[in-house]
Amino acid sequence: MSGNRAAFLLEPKGRFEVRDAPIEQPGPGEVLVKVQAGALQPADEKVAKMAMLPVEYPAVLGSPVGGIVQALGEGVTKVAVGDHIVCGTKIFTHKKPKYGGMQRYTLVDESEVIEVSNLLVGSYLHRTNSRGIQVGDTDFTKVVTLGSYTPPGCLFGSNTLNMQYPSIPANPLAADEEGKKILIWGGSSAMGSLCISYAKQAGYTVISTSSPHNFDLLKSLGADHIFDHSDPTTVDKIRNLFPIHYWLDTISLNQSVTTICKILAPEGKPATKAYIHMLLPMVMAGNPTLPEGVTAGMHRFSTHAPENADWAKYFLSRGGFMEQGIKSGVIKGVPPYSLGGLEKVSEGIEELHKGVSGKKVVIDPWA
Ligand SMILES: NC(=O)c1ccc[n+]([C@@H]2O[C@H](COP(=O)([O-])OP(=O)(O)OC[C@H]3O[C@@H](n4cnc5c(N)ncnc54)[C@H](OP(=O)(O)O)[C@@H]3O)[C@@H](O)[C@H]2O)c1
Q1: Domain ranges within the chain, ordered by starting residue
Q2: Is the separation of the CB atoms in 254 and 289 below 8 Å?
Q3: pLDDT tens, position by position, 22-52
Q4: Which residues form the Enoyl reductase (ER) domain (predicted)?
């Protein structure tokens, strides 16, 4: 096994340095992955620039990763050595550098691994995993844009929006959900784009927003009604689509929260009662006062929580919805923005700091 290299954030708000790192052995329930593509997410930027979440330094950030299973910890049966997988990393829960994505080898949790071998149906099968099954070429750069369980967590968790589960093919909605609509604010974000495709696959009508240059992307994801988030007429246009049954703000900053509140509470009129599911804490939006009858809550979701056991079985198990959705192509997101190798991690953080539009920053640790 050739050696590991990682992009280390040397200290809080410090600089990155690429250097050799140990290849760690997987503990019970862990999987060692040879990373082929790793994504940077806004949380990485918030940690790198503002030290907003605690991690051990020198730190290795990044999630999710796509790659090839290299070794299995005790008790792992979900995947085999040689399988192609995508998985969120454990860096913000376990904090140690061996769990970050910006390196050639990382450790992930078996329970969250999604097997994606044979993603390209009919592709040339040329690798064999340890169970003797042939696996094909995988476009890891694309796969890594799809490997987040936050979108299905937001939409389908029993303590989140609790919408009807998606299926392949999409089943009609049950009688009590029939015709229901969801507003997904921020449809060109990495999370928003995935939420659109999950909600469509569950059979809902999707209303979403982005800048006009991303309208085609939102259309390709299946959004039914698309509006410019900066156009003042969007408020009335969305209100004309009432009733809207589910509200998801994937941006969760002051402009998005206050605009959603304007839709719910036209000046001088009582507000429509609603719960807004947010991806950031209200303090990041400047703690705006919500109209009476409107509540909001931040997405906090553990795939291990007992109340999410059914959810985890449906979405994360071998052959479960995420595996099927990614392999079949029904789960779609923003395109990858491949920056290059580990030396580009710092540049990737700067891109996120400036704000990306309709794309996901992806690093190839072997480039
Ligand atoms: N709580 C959790 O578990 C959790 C998990 C994942 C992510 N998050 C958080 O969720 C947020 C989104 O993450 P992400 O990776 O999806 O972000 P992202 O892809 O970096 O978001 C970029 C997009 O945001 C859009 N945008 C910016 N301002 C907007 C506005 N006012 N209204 C509508 N769209 C706007 C831009 O749209 P246009 O370019 O089209 O204008 C752009 O496409 C981040 O803050 C992240 O930290 C939280």
Answers
A1: 4-145+335-363, 150-298
A2: no
A3: 999 999 999 999 999 999 999 999 999 999 9
A4: 14-362
Residue 181, H or E segment: strand 181-185
Q: What is the DSSP string of 51-89?
A: --S---SSB-----EEEEEEEE-TT--SS-TT-EEEE--
Half-sphere exposure of 66 (CA within 13 A, CB side): 25
The CATH T-level fold of domain 4-145+335-363 is: Quinone Oxidoreductase; Chain A, domain 1 (3.90.180)
Q: Whose CA is nearest to atom 24 of ligand 1?
A: 189
Question: What pLDDT is recorded for position 267?
Answer: 86
Please state which architecture CATH assigns to domain 150-298: 3-Layer(aba) Sandwich (3.40)
Ligand 1 atom 31, closest CA: 256
At 300 the three-state DSSP class reads coil
* pLDDT class of 122 with cuts at 50, 70, 90: very low
Q: 270-315, pLDDT tens digit by residue?
A: 899 999 999 999 999 999 999 999 999 999 999 999 999 999 999 9
Q: Please give the Cα distance from 27 to 236 (Å, whole number).
A: 54
Ligand 1 atom nearest the C-alpha of 193 is: 16
Ligand 1 centroid – CA 157 distance (Å): 20
Q: Under the phi-then-psi rule, with left for phi > 0, alpha for psi from -120 to 50, and beta for the rest, what region is 216?
A: alpha
360, 149 Cβ separation under 8 angstroms: no
pLDDT at residue 138, rounded to an integer: 83
Give one DSSP letter per residue of 241-281, joined into a string: T----EEEESS-SHHHHHHHHHHHS-TTSPPPPEEEEESS-
